[in-house]
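Lab notebook, page 48
Experiment: co-folding of the full assembly
Goal: obtain a model of how the components sit together before planning crosslinking
Operator: M.T.
Materials (sequences as entered):
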Amino acid sequence: MSEVNDIDAALSDKELLHAIRHQLKKGPSQVSLRGETHAPLSAAACDWITLLVHTQIPVHVHLDGHLETRGLALALLADQTTFSPGTTIGKTACWSPLLAVLAHRRLGPGGTRQLLLTDDPASVLNTYGLLNTSALANTDLKSALHAATELPFDEALAFASWLPSGPSQP
Amino acid sequence: MSDFQNKFIEASVEQGVGVIRLNRSNARNALNLAVLRELVAVLEQHENDPGVRVIVLTGGEGNFSSGADIDMLGTHTAASYSVSEIRSHYETIRAAKKPMVAAVSGFCLGGGCEIALSCDYVIASDSAVFAQPEIKLGIIPGAGGTQLWALRSGATEQVSAALEGKTVTAFDARRMRLINQVVPKAALMQAALSFAQTLAQRAPLALCAAKAATRARWRMSLDAALDHEVLLMSNLLASVDAHEGIAAFLDKRPAQFRGA
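Observation: model returned without errors.
Model output:
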């Protein structure tokens, strides 16, 4: 495991993809992104989104300042998200088809509708346990959740049965 | 348990399962002539060992194989590849008579992917990625990579693999039925061995016959394959194991198969 260096969350999509790839190659204990995210979510984001969706390494995101769609996307991709005090979210930050897909994966259909229609996205993220939580940074739980998303129920259950059943490191 | 030691391949036999492990981790288990020679030599040992009923082929928890050494391909001319020793080794692996389980983790690319898909079962860790990236080098897969995906996943995935060199994760591979099971990386070998040992408790002759029957369509029409199936079934009816299997069923006891 190598030491974790924060990736600037405000990089361009291409730079962000390169930075995440570079960090993952080093075999870190976690991927950490930090900063302000004024950017919208464009098609060029699909590559780094896919990378973060599929990584088995815990993803930590710390956001501050004013957030737009990319910030919400990062929050939906992360295993652990924290906001600095005073962080604000743009009124139209949720209005993105790409974000809708991400939200559906993370929050399910009900949660997605809440997020897309709300004036207060932070409260929805909070309700669904995505803000200021650390429990799901556990790699075994992350693997099990990923399997549950990707596999039919019985296969996900079989997958989880191979993971340690007791409490393990957070 | 018996062991064979080679330079690039580790092999062992335990509880009816012959394990072949690629051991060139410093090159991500890339395949060159020496690796393929050793692999095929050990495979033939397992094929001829009556104590081996099922074979597990793996690269361990790191990488299954990153594919052929590029310099190995570069040594061939337009005329020489079709009659090359490399081709012959891939064919030998594909033609194995005993059931084979590929236990795949990490990179499973190019020739490595073709070897994995030559097996009857593919059990992959959640870190596995599969691809035929040859198109990016200006060539195409040359050891089954334009055919073996289609047999499992259909023409759509075959075209993507061969023409785009698209990489698929273990979970994608499972969804497209390219592989049989996904397990956590740390459990890969335990899961593959456990599965292989369960399979190894079946009647050995019937296992080989079932494999031959299911692969008959690779080289014959449906009618011929159905006739072939009848012949294989007829031969098995004369086996000691078939009598034992039927007797054990009637006696409500576990069958003791001997491979005779």
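Interpretation: The CA atoms of residues 133 and 168 of chain B lie 11 Å apart.
Next step: discuss with group before ordering constructs.
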